[in-house]
Design a protein that fits this description.
By secondary structure, this protein is α/β, with parallel strands linked by helices. The chain has six helices and nine strands. The structure holds iron/sulfur cluster.
Length: 215
């Protein structure tokens, strides 16, 4: 008998609400896969990485097969018709395959894949969405065709023209430092986002988890 494929899972948690993008405020659970191709996750290498503002711990975790992942997700909250799932990382498309996406799509009302855009997405059901926050990573171009973009301002503003040209919705999100959504730099980033909303047709995305201080 062949052993089931496993995924390296950093954490499974909820219930919470989606904090960003198209499904913001909607109830959901989170599946965070381990590993990223933009940074190795060590504190001492963060400043020189492609994402010096990254606030996510995606190292380590445990190997779980699909049945174990679904069981843990379902244990978080009784099934309900409007519950979503956020598939995040790290970079989840380093590991996610069509089987995982099909299973999540069947189990939840909607699924948001939070990707940096440098990996092609396997085939996915219609209720599994691709949310791309593009990152400039050396020798790893953005190749995905997302359902919406989430461009960090000002750090990834160079992606804005291309994102708008795609015709998909474009959220602009102020870069937030370790100190949280406050201070002069953060306010300047918000002001730039608002300017882009008023002049370029972008939508504002705030990371509401940071305001509420919830996972
Ligand atoms: S791509 Fe996302 S998870 Fe990976 S280092 Fe950058 S911000 Fe962090």
């Amino acid at each position: 008998m062949t052993a089931a494929r496993t995924y390296q899972v950093k954490s499974i948690f909820g219930p919470t609400v989606q904090g960003e993008g198209m499904h913001v405020g909607q109830p959901c659970v989170f599946l965070r896969l381990a590993g990223c191709n933009a940074w190795d996750g060590r504190v001492e290498t963060r400043a020189a990485s492609a994402c010096p503002y990254c606030d996510t711990d995606f190292r380590g975790g445990e190997a779980l097969d699909l049945d174990a992942i679904l069981a843990r997700l379902h244990a978080l909250i009784p099934p309900r018709v409007d519950l979503g799932c956020v598939l995040s990382g790290g970079e989840p498309l380093l590991q996610a395959d069509a089987a995982l996406l099909a299973a999540l799509g069947a189990a939840f009302a909607w699924v948001d894949i939070e990707t940096n855009g440098t990996r092609l997405c396997p085939s996915r059901p219609a209720n599994v969405f691709l949310s791309c926050s593009p990152k400039r990573i050396p020798h790893q171009p953005v190749v995905c065709e997302p359902d919406w973009w989430k461009v960090l301002i000002p750090d990834q503003e160079h992606f804005l023209d291309g994102a708008l040209a795609s015709g998909q919705p474009v959220f602009v999100q102020p870069t937030c430092s370790d100190s949280g959504p406050e201070g002069a730099i953060y306010r300047a980033n918000v002001a730039r986002c608002l300017e882009l909303c008023f002049t370029r047709g972008c939508r504002l995305s705030l990371q509401i988890h940071k305001y509420l201080d919830i996972p």
